[in-house]
Design brief:
- The protein has one domain.
- Helix 1 packs antiparallel against helix 2.
- With about 60 residues, it is an all-alpha fold.
Length: about 60
C-alpha cells in the first residue's frame, strides 16, 4: 500500500508541475477563449488538489 501511495504521490506532483506551467501560461491571456481555457485549467487543478490531498492524508 505504501509503495502505491508513493508512486501516486509522485504522479500527482508531476501533474501539479504541469498544471502550474499551464496556469502560468494562461495568466497573461487577454481574449475570451484563452480566459475560458484558463478557467477550465483552474477547475481541473482544484479537482486534482482535492484528490491529491485525499491520497496524501487517507
Amino acid at each position: 500500500m505504501e509503495v502505491f501511495k508513493d508512486s501516486a504521490f509522485e504522479e500527482a506532483s508531476r501533474s501539479f508541475q504541469f498544471d502550474i506551467i499551464l496556469i502560468c501560461s494562461q495568466i497573461g491571456a487577454q481574449n475570451q477563449v484563452s480566459r475560458s481555457i484558463a478557467f477550465r485549467t483552474y477547475y481541473e487543478f482544484g479537482i486534482r488538489l482535492v484528490f491529491f490531498l485525499m491520497l496524501y492524508f487517507f
